[in-house]
Amino acid sequence: MGDLKNRFGPGLSTIFLILVLFWLAVMVLAPNLMMIDYALRPNLPPAAIGGPDDRYSLANITYLAGEATHRAIFFKTIWASGLVAAVTFLVCYPIAFWMAQRATTGQLAIALMLIIIPFFINEVLRTLAWFIILAYRGPLNAVLLNLGIIDGPIRWQGDGGVLAAMVYAYILFMLLPIYNAIESLEKAQIEAARDLGASPWRIHTRVVIPHAKAGIATGFVFTFMLAAGSYVAPALLGSPGSRWFTEIIYNWFFEGGDWNRGAAYALVLLVLCLAVVLITLRLFRVNLTDVAK
């Protein structure tokens, strides 16, 4: 607050602070409090709201514990979101390292342009593009058939299609934090490690990755949270056997008409995602301040 006041003056800094607090109250705090309220109350007809049956309880949350199918989809969503984050890291780390340590200014500009411009398009349209690519008679099957790699078309929709679409959809949220972290690493440190006989694997595991751990943790947090809360990719590219927990929440809200149970499911997902995020930060030995940077 002191730095903000010194930079913009007391009047403007106060306005900024009020706007931030208003945004947090209206866009973050109020919706979550409403979700908690809905989750702890039963689904009642309008005439019964406020009556003797309208009491707070954990019935909507315990319903999930007793519903084996929903519980399995819930845990599958959690570990699959972790898998999305891990695969996205494996894809992004070499690119981020090349951009930060090897690319020239011109190459960096072209790479950023090629990576960022597709994201000017809406996520739904980008997912539909993957739907076309992975279609039964789509271009991927056509290329594989012409090359003789497969004997017949393959149905790519399912867990594999969802994974590919999510890795592509959230690549920026992993790539840019890692790139920013590696960019601050002095090239002389890498050259010194190489001069001392360190192998490329040892350079990355002992020098680059420890230096970039804050960026890696940030990328994991963003990618995991976005994947766990994704609806578009599972809905368009998933199969009956690859349902996502967000689809169950959507069904409770818009097909089952039970907002209370849908809010309870969303609350459980939010709490567990936050727990996974905190555990991840603990494992990386990174705090929220480092992520905020």
TrEMBL record:
Keywords: Cell membrane, Membrane, Transmembrane, Transmembrane helix, Transport
GO CC, any one term: plasma membrane
Gene3D superfamilies per UniProt: MetI-like
Topological type in the membrane: Multi-pass membrane protein
Record-linked InterPro entries: MetI-like (IPR000515), MetI-like_sf (IPR035906)
Family note: Belongs to the binding-protein-dependent transport system permease family. CysTW subfamily.
KW Cell membrane (keyword) present: yes
Domain ABC transmembrane type-1: 74-280
Protein name (database record): ABC transporter permease
